[in-house]
Recover the amino acids of this structure.
């Protein structure tokens, strides 16, 4: 084992809010695999380059089991939450993981997501109608960026519309390190209890939602269906909401680019890929732990050593992307790693893409005068959570 570099994780953004933290940039400059300190006083490997990140995420010799010794977790609160969730969700091997993932894949196939596009469009239009009727200035996060993904994932899962506000508030607290461990654990418990009750209701009165489909398939017990539903509920609105708000802000900071999208809506699909690359909201990496000795980027990672795959630096790798620190909506950014890679990559990526494409195109088309209603320098960004975002986004038009 080499001696530790003077680098620690997690790192806060210390320049432009759209830039990767300098700590991670420095690590990438030192090499594709660098030793860093972690909050508990131990060390792990930071994997920073595109090729090596892709390789590690696809390599079965690296485990995603967060309860294995050496797996890098940023806080003890996260370790406790992972441990408690494992009490009701047993560890599965690769083949079992693939089987369970296959149960969900059908619900998120591009063809099925395309069939949802008219409903997503209606949700976007209805949300914008209400926002426009209220008149500016408004907070785009609470009035648009949060409600749209929340409504979509509720539709998919079969969650009652009246429960939106509850799970939006609880999930926000659960993922916010600044809220403190007690508040985070309380929010998690409330969400778990809610999902258990909802799953029991779906057993008695099934509908067309994903939770009911999983229950009627008989492939998973009810408690695991509830756990899967909670995971999808959290991932299905927090990530897309953060991306939608940040994407809008990034476009407003590059005024020539929204005009290009309005003139040619066909560019929106490619623009979303570039925004996913440029913003990379998974800000502190994707954890793995080595199951055996593996060589990565010229370094030997020993069995039991943790690694953090830095999607943000991989997406800014100048060996893959020209002028990677620039937002260029004309770029072919499809090789970005924002959804991960390998068997654990984001299963809902087709849905997220559809939501972002529809929401951004509609927002720019219907509000051509959209602009910030507060100084950019006064905006507050979400550094203390796993998914980067902006707390509020005051806009007018």
């Amino acid at each position: 084992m080499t001696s530790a570099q003077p680098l620690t994780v997690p790192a806060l953004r210390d320049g432009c809010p759209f830039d990767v933290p300098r700590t991670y940039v420095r690590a990438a400059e030192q090499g594709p695999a660098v030793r860093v300190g972690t909050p508990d006083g131990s060390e792990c490997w930071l994997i920073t380059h595109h090729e090596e990140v892709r390789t590690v995420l696809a390599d079965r010799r690296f485990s995603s089991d967060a309860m294995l010794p050496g797996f890098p977790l940023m806080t003890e609160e996260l370790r406790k939450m992972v441990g408690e969730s494992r009490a009701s969700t047993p560890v599965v091997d690769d083949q079992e993981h693939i089987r369970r993932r296959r149960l969900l894949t059908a619900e998120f196939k591009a063809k099925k997501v395309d069939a949802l596009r008219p409903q997503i469009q209606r949700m976007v239009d209805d949300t914008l109608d209400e926002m426009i009727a209220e008149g500016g200035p408004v907070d785009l996060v609470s009035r648009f960026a949060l409600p749209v993904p929340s409504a979509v994932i509720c539709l998919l899962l079969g969650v009652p519309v009246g429960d939106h506000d509850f799970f939006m508030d609880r999930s926000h607290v659960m993922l916010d390190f600044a809220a403190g461990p007690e508040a985070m654990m309380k929010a998690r418990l409330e969400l778990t209890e809610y999902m258990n009750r909802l799953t029991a209701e779906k057993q008695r009165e099934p509908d067309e939602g994903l939770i009911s489909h999983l229950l009627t398939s008989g492939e998973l017990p009810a408690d695991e269906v509830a756990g899967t539903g909670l995971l999808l509920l959290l991932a299905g609105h927090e990530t897309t909401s953060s991306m939608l708000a940040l994407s809008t802000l990034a476009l407003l900071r590059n005024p020539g680019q929204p005009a290009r999208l309005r003139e040619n809506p066909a560019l929106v699909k490619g623009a979303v890929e570039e925004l996913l690359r440029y913003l990379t909201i998974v800000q502190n990496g994707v954890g793995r732990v080595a199951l055996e000795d593996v060589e990565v980027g010229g370094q030997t990672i020993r069995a039991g050593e943790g690694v953090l795959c830095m999607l943000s630096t991989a997406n800014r790798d100048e060996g893959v992307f020209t002028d990677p620190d620039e937002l260029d909506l004309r770029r072919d950014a499809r090789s970005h790693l924002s959804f991960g890679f390998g068997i654990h990559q984001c299963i809902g990526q087709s849905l997220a893409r559809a939501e972002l494409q529809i929401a951004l195109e509609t927002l720019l088309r219907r509000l051509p005068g959209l602009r910030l209603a507060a100084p950019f320098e006064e905006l507050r960004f979400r550094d203390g959570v796993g998914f980067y975002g902006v707390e509020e986004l005051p806009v007018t038009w």
The chain has a mean pLDDT of 89. The chain has one domain: 22-396.
